[in-house]
Amino acid sequence: MRSYRLLSFVVAVLLLAALSVTTLPVLAHEDVDVGPYALEVGWVDEPPLAGVKNAVFLSVVEKESGQPVEDISNLQVAISAGGLERELTMRPLGEDTPGQFAGDFIPTRRGVYTVKLTGKIEETDVNVSQDIEEAEEAASIQFPEALPDALAMNRDIEEAQATASTAQTLAVIGIVIGAVGLALGLWGLRRR
């Protein structure tokens, strides 16, 4: 009886382990209905990380038939964050994934990005804005230690260059003043 319980426990643990390995992670995509179409909007790679190449994910399916829509040539897709906006060039995600598209870009700051869809899908007008999952700092998943922040390093380099430029200007001014003082001193000695 005791070995039966142990065997049952081992089988249950193995089943749970197998399920956890084969289960795909839940993606944070947003569903949007536009007329007769079901759209799914999110990131291609999750979690999205600031400073790491990613893409906006877009899936377009006819709700009634469940058929993917492969032509979105009259649909404009833009990404916005922090008051700035950029239009994306959408490409099919893959040959085996009809109706799924990606627009590549690198999110450069942490925060929530908004996908703006305007234009038409076939004959249906589209004008939708949808927030997608917040981009995180890459340091949140770096291991064994976080890499220096490239943007902060660039700011530090720019500040150091500005400081060096100011120091160089002051050094030149000091040399010129010293040379003028030396010249005046020599002129004064000559007059004596």
Strand-helix topology:
Layout: H1 2-22, E1 30-34, E2 37-43, E3 49-50, E4 54-62, E5 75-81, E6 84-88, E7 90-92, E8 100-105, E9 111-121, E10 124-137, H2 150-191
Parallel strand pairs: 3-10
Antiparallel strand pairs: 1-2, 2-4, 4-8, 5-6, 5-9, 7-8, 9-10
Structural description of this entry:
By secondary structure, the protein is of the alpha+beta class. It folds into 2 domains: 26-140, Immunoglobulin-like, CATH 2.60.40.10; 148-192. 33% of the residues lie in helices and 36% in strands. It contains 2 helices and 10 strands; from the N terminus they run αββββββββββα. It has helices at residues 2-22, 150-191, and strands spanning 30-34, 37-43, 49-50, 54-62, 75-81, 84-88, 90-92, 100-105, 111-121, 124-137. The strands form 2 sheets. A 5-stranded antiparallel sheet has the order 1-2-4-8-7, with no helix packed on it. β7 (90-92) and β8 (100-105) form a beta hairpin. The radius of gyration is 30 Å and the shape is elongated. The protein starts with a helix and ends with a helix.
Radius of gyration: 30 Å
User: What share of the residues lie within helices?
Assistant: 25-40%
Structural class by SSE content: alpha+beta
What number of structural domains do the residues give? 2
> How many helical elements?
2
Secondary-structure element string: HEEEEEEEEEEH
How large a portion of the residues is in β-strands, by DSSP E? 35-45%
Mean pLDDT: 84
Sheet bearing the most strands, described?
Answer: 5 strands, antiparallel
CATH 4th-level superfamily of the largest domain: Immunoglobulins
CATH classification class of the largest domain: Mainly Beta
Annotated CATH architecture of the largest domain: Sandwich
Total beta strands:
10
- C-alpha end-to-end distance: 120 Å
Dominant shape: elongated
The low-pLDDT segments are 6-27
CATH topology group of the largest domain: Immunoglobulin-like
Strands of the biggest beta sheet: in what spatial order?
A: 1-2-4-8-7
